[in-house]
Design brief:
92 residues, alpha+beta, GMP Synthetase, Chain A, domain 3, 3-stranded mixed β-sheet, globular
Length: 92
Amino acid sequence: MEDSIKEIMSTFKKSLQADGGDIELVDISNGIVKVRITRTTVPVTFSTFLRDYRTREGISCGKCRIPTSTIVGALESALKEKVPIIKVEAVK
């Protein structure tokens, strides 16, 4: 299961790193995947992550960073399609 999670997370990592952020797997326990996220730094309108995962279509203000909850929600959806997890949590 850990290998599958890491494989799926690697695509998220590439998109987030392109935006100046990052994601790291911290722990997997009892169906809960814990990750550490460095939020992106590019404007929303130029975000590779949002474009790749279509998490906020139609947003064009371009001034805010991607909320952690958006990244967690997209990762949780992607993981649940392939791995039997309960949820994803962001930790500091």
